[in-house]
Amino acid sequence: MPMASSAISHFSSVSTSSLCFNFSTKLRHPTTLRQFPTHFTKSLTVSASTSTSLDYSTDKSSLSSKTSNWQWKFKDNSIKIHYEEHGNETNGPNKNILMMPTISDVSTVEEWRLVAKDIVQKSGDVNWRATIVDWPGLGFSDRPKLDYNADVMESFLVDFILDPNSPVNRMDLVIVGGGHAATIAIRAAKKGLVKPTAIAAVAPTWSGPLPIVFGRDSKTESRYELLRGTLRAPAVGWMMYNMLVSNKKSIQSQYKSHVYADSANVTPAIIENRYELTKQKGARYVPAAFLTGLLDPVKTREEFLQLFEGLDGKLPVLVVSTSGAPKRSKAEMEALREAKGVSKFVEVPGALLPHEEYPSLVAKELHSFLQDVI
């Protein structure tokens, strides 16, 4: 998240990364394949070195695509939620994928778009229909001044899946999420709030930028609360947000340092697009919560692993790690390599947004997983 480096510098003159953590590292390991159904039987090594960067040119394929809005009723609020649908109009049985963007101040459905289109256009026995939805307070959804926390985001995910008027068909549904979105989906499934056919966690994370660096105690929590309150304030909040987040130089720096693995893939079009997202009305409320740990679905690595363990034997879970993730986030991904409840673990190039930076490679791994679980 492009807020964090500047925020942490102001927090205590310590520089760190933004979307989640800091200090990029390059670690390569063979991919391991864990057994879930009987047809998951072989070990697998991913070797993919070709860069596939995001392309904002007009798509010329024959895919069926549309954008629309859904109204989320939350307490006394009616919140407009933006989503996209991508499908294949050929005859055959249909199955459904729900793709959840990584939570950050530049979160958007666009980060999953090329992956969705790649998957739904592949031929096979099943036609996949992919829905990508912006979180409340992010992307092109409304951004009201709610008291955002992990429970609010979990409630949204559950309501979007279960509401009778939802665009998502919850039958034969596979949930795919990046970063915190993946862990929130895992938590909801462990609680039994949603019952997907399978879950794919792409570069999963669980801790916001400040807690991962400074930890959690009464002193730091007080500082987080002060910073969060300042960012949410009517006048000074916008001033601080503009200084820390909403400027192109900051966004470009963060993308090149750790959001993408290859700085050459960070184009002016991407930076301009993400900059515009930070200028939306109410743009600072969710980032203020994420930065200070309110959106963390768990508090410790042990709790993180317990979420996955709780799904052991219940449904297939794919974890997609990245070779170029920042050091701290990489360590959390690696903790899942042999974790109970993880039926398949793969590694691809990338850092914190591999699905945006290398969409064809991530789509290949997801499609392979989907073929195994249908």
TrEMBL record:
**What InterPro entries does this protein's entry cite?**
AB_hydrolase_1, AB_hydrolase_fold
Known Pfam families for this protein?
A: Abhydrolase_6 (PF12697)
Keyword terms: Hydrolase
Tell me the ranges covered by the AB hydrolase-1 domain, including all copies.
Answer: 126-364
User: What Gene3D superfamilies does the record tag this protein with?
Assistant: alpha/beta hydrolase
According to the UniProt entry, its GO molecular function terms are:
hydrolase activity
Keyword check for Transmembrane helix: no
What protein is this chain from?
Answer: Alpha/beta hydrolase-1
Its source organism is: Helianthus annuus (Common sunflower)
